[in-house]
């Protein structure tokens, strides 16, 4: 029996907010038609990445972030985001969507992910925490993880280069998260990058070490550094989208109580190994054990 069906979506994200939003709405409808409970989209899916269409980024550190955002139409972004929320209501599914969030016109926006439920309500917003230098010059970093539940499955969010930080994934595992949505914009490259050859394996490692299901949604602008893909909590790769293509990848989390029990045991075992509690009863208090420069 299926507990949750996830649609990992990718498309070429543009600097045209209305065009991005229209594509998101189309893929929400496609995901719903495929039986998905949630549609997952790339970083900056609504607003577009600041590097698109020759937009010049303010250097880091810089007080010129207003120049970077001077053409941003926040009223349009809000209106199109409302349309995406309505698409969730119409389709009856959740959406996890990359955007930008302006909380004060005198401060840099956050690079964010919105979580909309099947009624179109804003359940959560995740603000990217581990920012690159160019990110930090133009965005306010977040400092909080977020967790939420879809059909009883605990979920979390990461973005962009946060795939480089194992502690974030382990912290989510410690918080009881089972499904992680990772949104990226590793695209519009001139050639394959190091991400092409390492990120899929790194995410498999995070899935294995933290026992997480991971949906990786990456923008599909050619040349896409890596296509979007699904990883099971065992670390095995699931499906993968076609590279540089607009696509919806449907994956399932099944009702598997025996495996749930196994992975719960593995998490507890590894937690005990890390904090030393598993080994503490077996460690000898004989002082001779500490003499490491003698033969036994």
Word description of this protein:
This protein is of the alpha/beta class. The protein has a single domain (2-279), classed as Carbon-nitrogen hydrolase (Nitrilase/N-carbamoyl-D-aminoacid amidohydrolase, 4-Layer Sandwich). It contains 7 helices and 12 strands. A 6-stranded mixed beta sheet has the order 5-4-3-2-1-12, with helices on one face. It is globular. The N and C termini lie far apart (57 Å). The relative contact order is 0.15.
Radius of gyration: 21 Å
- Relative strand content: 15-25%
Mass-distribution shape: globular
Strand order of the largest sheet: 5-4-3-2-1-12
Structural class: alpha/beta
List keywords for this structure.
296 residues; alpha/beta; Nitrilase/N-carbamoyl-D-aminoacid amidohydrolase; six-stranded mixed sheet; 7 helices; 24% strand
Offer a concise description of the structure.
It is built from 7 helices and 12 strands. The chain is an alpha/beta fold and 296 residues long.
Topology:
Layout: E1 2-10, H1 17-33, E2 38-40, H2 65-68, H3 74-91, E3 94-101, E4 110-116, E5 122-127, H4 133-138, E6 147-150, E7 153-159, H5 166-174, E8 179-184, H6 194-210, E9 213-218, E10 229-231, E11 237-240, E12 247-254, H7 257-275
Parallel strand pairs: 1-2, 2-3, 7-8, 8-9
Antiparallel strand pairs: 1-12, 3-4, 4-5, 6-7, 9-10, 10-11
Helix pairs in contact: 1-3, 5-6
């Amino acid at each position: 029996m299926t507990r949750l069906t996830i649609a990992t979506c990718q498309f070429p994200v543009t600097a045209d907010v209305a065009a991005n939003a229209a594509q998101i709405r189309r893929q929400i409808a496609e995901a719903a038609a495929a039986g998905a409970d949630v549609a997952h989209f790339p970083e900056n899916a609504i607003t577009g990445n600041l590097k698109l269409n020759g937009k010049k980024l303010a250097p880091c550190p810089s007080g010129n972030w207003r120049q970077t955002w001077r053409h941003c139409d926040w009223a349009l972004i809000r209106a199109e985001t409302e349309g995406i929320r309505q698409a969730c209501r119409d389709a009856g599914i959740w959406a996890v969507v990359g955007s930008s969030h302006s909380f004060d016109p005198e401060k840099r926006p956050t690079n964010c992910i919105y979580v909309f439920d099947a009624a179109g309500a804003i359940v959560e917003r995740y603000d990217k925490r581990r920012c690159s230098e160019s990110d930090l010059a133009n965005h306010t970093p977040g400092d909080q993880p977020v967790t939420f539940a879809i059909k009883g499955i605990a979920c979390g969010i990461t973005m962009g280069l946060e795939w480089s930080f194992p502690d974030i994934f382990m912290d989510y595992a410690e918080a009881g998260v089972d499904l992680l949505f990772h949104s990226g914009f590793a695209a519009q490259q001139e050639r394959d990058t190091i991400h092409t050859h390492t990120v899929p394996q790194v995410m498999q490692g995070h899935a294995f070490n933290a026992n997480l299901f991971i949906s990786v949604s990456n923008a599909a602008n050619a040349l896409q550094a890596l296509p979007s893909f699904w990883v099971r909590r065992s670390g095995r790769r699931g499906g993968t989208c076609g590279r540089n293509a607009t696509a919806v990848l449907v994956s399932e989390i099944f009702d598997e109580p025996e495996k749930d029990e196994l992975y719960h045991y593995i998490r507890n075992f590894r937690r005990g190994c890390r904090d030393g509690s598993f080994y503490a009863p077996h460690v000898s208090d004989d002082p001779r054990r500490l003499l490491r420069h003698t033969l036994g």
